[in-house]
Write a structure and sequence with these properties.
With 196 residues, the protein is an all-beta fold. Helix content is 0%, strand content 51%. A four-stranded antiparallel beta sheet has the order 3-4-5-6, with no helix packed on it. It has a four-stranded antiparallel beta sheet with strand order 7-8-9-10, with no helix packed on it.
């Protein structure tokens, strides 16, 4: 559902056949993408609610986002993160992960790198890589439970991750080194950098 941020009025409803895992606006605010258990990501017009694109996975789609320049869409699901042309929905490439569900995906702010999260791993890939198994860096060995969330810093040099092991960690995105370790009394389910 899309709501008016000032008065809470329901503006539009976007439907999936089952659980909705994620949604995001395009950079210009004109489109919305949703990801669902039904195996689809849908792109809607934010003004009319009209469905413009359907991006299909074999199984559930767990995460979705637009690139910061608005040219690409990134979705994740079982085994893969997938990159699509945002204008017409053409499939571009898939990025292989581990042997499990890819729970979260994100672009770096310059749109050159892709981050994907699966199990206890955070994988960083180059958007221009030729082989879907290639990756730049695997952030591993730090978390002892499922990573729930992760994202890039504005300059792309850092990654923060949140895990069910009650920790959040800041990593060097180039070397995979853990730079900071934050501990909590409960599972860390979300994380982000503060941008001023």
């Amino acid at each position: 559902r899309m709501w008016d941020a000032e008065n809470g009025t329901l503006l539009l409803y976007f439907g999936h056949e089952n659980i909705l895992y994620g949604c995001a606006f395009s950079p210009d605010g004109r489109r919305i993408i949703t990801a669902g258990w039904d195996g689809n990501a849908f792109v809607y017009c934010a003004e009319t609610g009209e469905c413009q694109l359907t991006l299909g996975h074999t199984l559930e789609v767990t995460s979705c986002c637009f690139s910061h320049d608005g040219k690409y869409i990134l979705t994740s699901g079982y085994l893969f993160a997938r990159i699509w042309n945002a204008a017409d929905g053409t499939f571009i490439k898939k990025l292989m992960h581990t042997d499990s569900l890819v729970a979260k995906c994100a672009f770096s702010f310059d749109d050159k790198l892709v981050l994907s999260v699966s199990n206890i791993f955070v994988i960083i890939s180059d958007i221009d890589c030729d082989d879907c198994h290639d990756f730049i860096c695997a952030l591993q060995g730090g978390h002892r439970s499922i990573v729930r969330d992760a994202c890039f810093s504005a300059d792309g040099n850092l990654v923060i991750s949140a895990s069910g092991d009650h920790t959040a960690r800041i990593w060097d995105a180039n070397t995979g080194e853990v730079l900071s370790d934050f501990r909590f009394n409960q599972k860390a389910v979300s994380c982000d950098f503060c941008f001023e």
